[in-house]
Amino acid sequence: MTESDFDVVIIGAGAAGLYALHRVRGLGLSAKVFEKGDGVGGTWYWNRYPGARCDVESWDYCYTFSEELEQEWEWTERFPTQPELERYFNHVADRFDLRRDIEFDTRVEQARFDDELSCWIVRTSEGETVSARFVISATGCLSEVNMPRFKGADTFEGQQIHTARWPKGGMDVTGMRVGVIGTGSTGVQAIPQLAKQAEQLFVFQRTPQFAIPARNRPLDDDKLEELKHNYRERWALKRANPVGMGRHPPEVSSALEVDEATRTRVLEDSWALGGPGFARTFDDVMTNAESNQLTAQFVRDKIKDKVDNPDVAYALLEIDHPLGARRLIVEIDYFETYNRLNVTLVDVATNPITEVTPQGLRTAEGSYDLDLIVYATGFDGMTGALLAMDIQGVGGLALRDKWANGAGAYLGLVASGFPNLFMITGPGSPAVFSNVIFSIEQHVDWITGCLAHMLDHGLDRIDSDPRAEAEWTRQVQEIAAQSIVGKTDSWWTGANIAGKPKGVTFYLGGTHTYAAVCDQIAAKGYEGFTFRAANRPARS
Ligand code: N01
Fold first, then answer.
1. Is the pLDDT of residue 540 over 90?
2. Average pLDDT of 426-450?
3. Which of 185, 327, 485, 500 to mutate to test the pocket of ligand 1 (most atoms within 8 A of CB)?
């Protein structure tokens, strides 16, 4: 193998790319990060729409690798806003001196494995070509936007914007007639904020969904002190928790094992607490249809009480899937927003959007004059950003072709035939079914542990064994088949993207189990991976 320009190229400077750079440097390797945006933060750089905030608690949605960082950073709210998260990732970039190895405004267009040289040749949007022994993709699971192409979209005389492309500095919608397409997590966050400014707001809803109150609150000094004191204990809880959150297991394991009064009390307590943990009020909400149904009915009743107009409440509650079959939404004032006189809910399931006109939107039954159309239409999840690049493995095999019938990689980390390409939160890992920053750290730690192993043993190439990969993908699918997750169409199943193979590609067996499997495999000499010896001495 000849010398490459860099030991490692990292794609993306979000939470994953920043931590990967920090750890790769710690191994004494040279690295270059290519980042499409002009700043760090990934999701929290791009998603600037009004109301954007994380629906995982700040004290869980943060790195754990540095105690100093934990102690010096002060979160201000239970659920941090986009600006606060962007500040956090900028602080991390500065504190660990990461910027000098990041090239901003640079998209990776192609990564091609050169078998002879045993390195990746990476070509960027800036016309630059570099070589690297390893590539780490840190492109995020929700970064490739899904922008529906409605007939006539080019003729619209107002403004149209996807929520993940909201301008820096914001947008004043005062006095505007605004249409929002989409009522997933993003729409549900943006709608209450836009309603406060817009003259009129039309919400185009295709699929009603469950949403749980956030019960957001500022963090006072006492809470901050407690948080800082307990970070290590919380870390241990995260390691034991199935989705990487610092929580204790539920008090009651099944909604079915207690009498109605106890069940109602447990649900009321969980509802009062709010936030994404509601999905784990009972251990079996995601696996037992009856437990799920009882929990879902409780939520329906609560939502109904919030909406004044019974017809609107009915339209918001015509939910056709179990609670948690789609990613559970966390809301602030969402349902109450429909009590405002300037907000209209338009059902586009029975009455679909047919076209965009110069004046606004037309549905099968009516026309809506608008100044701004907001596309809260989500993302090509899990694989979108990876497949937006032309990635070619051994023998020129395109990742797009390998995954034409469904995506998978051994442990979600290495796709066979694509040596020395590590994926962070790739298909086959818990990824979006976890506190993602927790999963990111676990992945990066595992990957850098593996790189250290290769350096120590004079190995220059790692691939996954196709049989190990196939068996892992089988397990991922088998576990998914037992879960309520994905038992309806959504981005979780890839159903929101035309032509995408349908199915859950993330591991639902729990982050605790997953991390244990990864560690065992490493302990057994990286069972299921194949290595090749380098023509260079092992490091001493
Ligand atoms: O996207 P979505 P999102 N005509 O795909 C509708 C994370 N997130 O950006 O369901 C009409 O969930 C679509 O309708 P339908 C989180 O993981 C996190 O909201 O396909 N409607 C749906 O209502 C989340 O799950 C946070 O029938 C159309 C909406 O657009 C993920 O991102 C905040 C349409 C898309 O919902 C994605 O959420 C925000 C069409 N042609 C997001 N096409 C926090 O942590 C699409 N829709 C804070």
1. no
2. 98
3. 185
